[in-house]
Design brief:
The complex is a heterodimer.
Chain A lengths: L1 H15 L6 H24 L8 H19 L3 H23 L4 H21 L1 H4 L5 E2 L7 E2 L4 E2 L4 H24 L1 H11 L1 H6 L4 H27 L1 E2 L6 H14 L6 H19 L6 H15 L5 H13 L1
Chain B lengths: L1 H6 L4 H6 L2 H4 L15 E7 L10 H16 L3 E3 L2 E3 L1 E7 L4 H14 L4 E4 L5 H11 L3 E2 L13 E2 L9 H11 L5 E7 L4 H14 L3 E2 L4 E3 L7 H9 L4 E3 L5 H13 L5 E3 L6 H7 L2 H4 L3 E2 L19 H11 L10 H16 L4 H9 L3 E4 L2 E6 L1 H4 L4 E3 L1 E8 L2 E9 H18 L9
Parallel strand pairs in B: 1-4, 1-5, 5-6, 6-7, 8-9, 8-10, 8-11, 11-12
Antiparallel strand pairs in B: 2-3, 13-17, 14-15, 15-16, 17-18
Helix pairs in contact in B: 4-14, 5-6, 7-8, 8-17, 14-15
The chains are: A mainly alpha, B alpha/beta.
Chain lengths: 317, 430
């Protein structure tokens, strides 16, 4: 019975959540929701054993594409968001040709270089990318009403509901992919690549598939960001942001679907809410860094290991 | 209920009044303050990260300013005197965080005015400003546009004041006839490049090659310096590079044996630059931001009260941290205080009306006029004289004040030409 109730209860809790927060916390909640999709999509790529440093830039590809579709072609915002995701996936497929000639550390460095090339292209071509200043005045999600509630997308609560729905659907798809035979093959590509290859699995094709799917969802997260803040520039998708994604994944753990989400939620709350509220605004990078080091030293398997310990104990009882 | 509130239309007042936080006590912008209640001023700038040098020293300066004002009784509005209090939010020079910060300062902290560095962060805040009518200030007039009437640039008229440094250089060293420029490729660097190009052209100084625009993530400046020196210029211009770049570029120039003239918008923490190079190398370095213990700032034309006292207090509390922005936000507050006292209110509309009355204002470096329609589409920049500063014997010295409007009257067409070439005119941005 509890199993059937848990999802409706979670939905009600999420609907009520922003109303218990302050305005700035509601804003942070919107960005957190977007980042959850980003880090969850990143995990899909890590299933194949590859860690990319271009994921945030690929997110930016979706943001730029969606912004330009609405600004230049007048495409309806939700449609342009989907198209932004598709463009990101397409760029990932193109990048996969040179990148998947490499593995491991070489792939990591190659992906960094690919990401930097894309960022330089945004800067170099002022038309249409706006150069270093980027694009501003990006069309917001158009307001609408569903009778009992008017969606005003300037308001973080409305945008949280919209982004939350999009992110929930995307995460459900990512979850289904991971649980499908394709997802199992991703695991095999990582842990038993020789055996998988001997069984007829095309390793490169599966790595490309994971890269493209992960990039597509990262692109949607970028589009969600662009249409909320109304401006993007190459600095919005720089290496600093990528380091945050990596730390969310590492601190949360990548062994489970929820690990990176835990990392993202815990570290965002720590950095953006707790440390600011405690008056450590200017000391945040120092304290954040110390906590990261401590968590890696004392929790090498990430935050997910705590949840696993707890759930195993309950199962034994 | 929510639907009804929203359907009624979202004016600035209903937007603010319908919020839960305002219901629990945060003041509306401009709403009457209780007697003696502090006036809160928002400080929304980078306090950490690569651009922190143009945020944190400003906040430190504001704290000293607030202590001085509060010690004198506070700000006198129509209902009596109020102390002033700064509420800061570190936007990390990120537009998304700037939006969050603006929301917090307006809707939770109830500030009456918000000071920003501007640049890349302003587009994230602009919708919040438009929706709430809050009065914002920027240090970068290149953020100004007719779309936002509540954004003002009352102190720093970056990058237009840069022309005064080039004028001084051309007058003092008439043999220096060639230059190269480098800048980080961003919202600060590009309009600055356009201004230097105009200023050099106006004085017949040839720019030997296209300005060298480097990525803001650059950490190794040796190749950039080598390339700049390869054309053997008389002048190397460091544009409006962040201090994180000015220092290593100067160090590289020193190591690679450069002997020509150096000009830059800023030379923050120049004592560290001297330590990394030499007193002789830094001799004659031209920039635009004085130390406030300079005797030239004790003149009657200066509208910054007790500049030396302010500098001394700053140097005592934050030794070695005096920079370009240490005084600028405090100077904005001088203007805001005068306007609020004139209006008798902290209401954003009343303050901006009082501030712009008569089309003139008291800028820190002398009386100035509200200006900018041609360049920014709106007269929201306070422009007048600006000092030229030169390092002499290891100390920054003001060599004189030059009029920006006078230069613009003669060479405005050149500035517009180069601004257009870099897509920096207000109608080209975004």
């Amino acid at each position: 019975m509890l199993k059937f109730l848990i999802w409706p209860l979670a939905a009600v809790a999420l609907l009520a959540l922003p109303h218990g927060l302050s305005f700035s916390q509601q804003e942070i909640l919107v960005f957190l929701t977007i980042n959850i999709l980003l880090v969850t999509s990143y995990r899909l790529l890590t299933l194949t054993g590859e860690w990319s440093l271009a994921h945030v830039v690929i997110m930016g590809v979706g943001a730029y594409a969606s912004a330009l579709f609405t600004k230049e072609l007048g495409i309806y915002v939700p449609v342009s968001m989907l198209l932004g995701g598709l463009v990101s996936a397409l760029i990932a497929v193109i990048l996969s040709f040179p990148l998947f000639r490499m593995k491991g550390f070489y792939f990591l460095i190659g992906s960094f270089a690919a990401g930097e090339i894309i960022r330089l292209l945004w800067k170099h071509f002022r038309d249409p990318f706006g150069g270093a200043k980027g694009i501003k005045g990006i069309d917001p999600m158009p307001d609408f009403s569903i009778g009992i509630y008017n969606f005003d997308f300037f308001e973080p609560v409305s945008y949280f509901y919209f982004a939350g729905l999009v992110v929930a659907v995307c995460m459900w798809i990512l979850w289904r992919i991971e649980r499908s035979p394709v997802g199992l093959t991703f695991h095999a590509v990582h842990w038993q690549d020789k055996l998988a290859e001997a069984s007829g699995v095309n390793l490169r094709a599966y790595r490309t598939l994971a890269f493209a799917v992960a990039s597509g969802f990262a692109g949607i997260s970028g589009a969600l960001l662009a249409h909320y803040i109304g401006t993007i520039n190459p600095g919005s998708f720089d290496l600093d942001y990528m380091v945050f994604v990596l730390t969310w994944a590492i601190v949360g753990g990548t062994g489970t679907f929820y690990g990176p989400i835990l990392g993202c939620v815990a570290l965002t709350i720590l950095n953006e809410v707790v440390l600011r509220e405690m008056g450590f605004e200017q000391a945040r990078p120092l304290i954040y860094g110390c906590i990261l080091i401590a968590s890696i030293l004392f929790m090498p398997n990430g935050l997910e290991s705590i949840v696993q310990k707890f759930t195993k104990r309950r199962a034994k009882q | 209920m929510i639907s009804k509130i929203m359907a009624a239309g979202l004016s600035r007042r209903t937007f603010l009044k319908s919020t839960a936080i305002t219901a629990v006590g945060a003041a509306l912008p401009g709403a009457a303050l209780a007697a003696g209640e502090p006036i809160k001023i928002g400080f929304l700038a980078p306090l950490t990260g690569a651009v922190a040098a143009w945020g944190k020293p400003g906040l430190d300066g504001c704290q000293i300013w607030a202590e001085r004002v509060n010690a004198a009784g506070g700000i006198e509005l129509s209902d009596g005197k109020h102390p002033v209090e700064f509420v800061s939010y570190d936007n990390e020079y990120d537009p998304a965080k700037a939006r969050t910060g603006a929301t917090k300062l307006i809707r939770e902290d109830g500030v009456s005015f918000i000071m920003m560095l501007g640049g890349d962060t302003w587009p994230g805040v602009q919708p919040v400003a438009d929706k709430t009518g809050m009065l914002f200030s920027t240090l970068l007039p290149s953020d100004l546009s007719p779309d936002s009437t509540t954004l003002i640039a009352p102190t720093e008229v970056h990058p237009i004041y840069l022309v005064t440094g080039v004028d001084y250089l051309a007058d003092t060293y008439p043999d220096a006839k060639t230059a190269v420029i480098c800048a980080q490729d961003d919202a600060l660097g590009l309009p600055s490049v356009a201004t230097y190009l105009a200023a050099f052209e106006a004085r017949g100084i040839e720019v030997l090659e296209e300005p060298l625009l480097f990525d803001p993530a650059t950490t190794d400046f040796a190749p950039i310096v080598t390339r700049m020196m390869s054309s053997n210029p008389d002048i190397i211009c460091l544009d409006t590079c962040y201090s994180d770049y000015v220092h290593p570029i100067s160090e590289q120039l020193f190591q690679q044996g450069y002997e020509g003239k150096l000009i830059s918008a800023t030379a923050d923490f120049y004592d560290q630059m001297i330590a990394k190079t030499s007193k002789e190398f830094m001799e004659g370095f031209i920039f635009q931001f004085p130390d406030f213990d300079d005797p030239a700032l004790a003149g009657d034309n200066i509208n910054f009260e007790d500049a030396k006292g302010f500098y001394d207090a700053y140097a005592e509390r934050h030794p070695g941290e005096w920079g370009a922005v240490s005084w600028e936000y405090a100077s904005i507050m001088d203007l805001w205080k005068a306007a609020a006292e004139k209006a008798g209110s902290a209401d954003p509309d009343a303050v901006i009306t009082a501030m712009k009355e008569g089309g003139t204002g008291k800028h820190a470096f002398g009386d100035a006029k509200w200006w900018g329609t041609e360049l920014f589409g709106i007269d929201n920049a306070l422009v007048g004289d600006w000092p030229v500063v030169v390092i002499e014997d290891g100390k920054a010295v003001i060599k004189g004040f030059k009029s920006i409007p006078d230069w613009y009257d003669q060479h405005g067409d050149l500035l517009i030409k180069h601004m257009q070439a870099y897509n920096q005119m207000y109608d080209q941005r975004g």
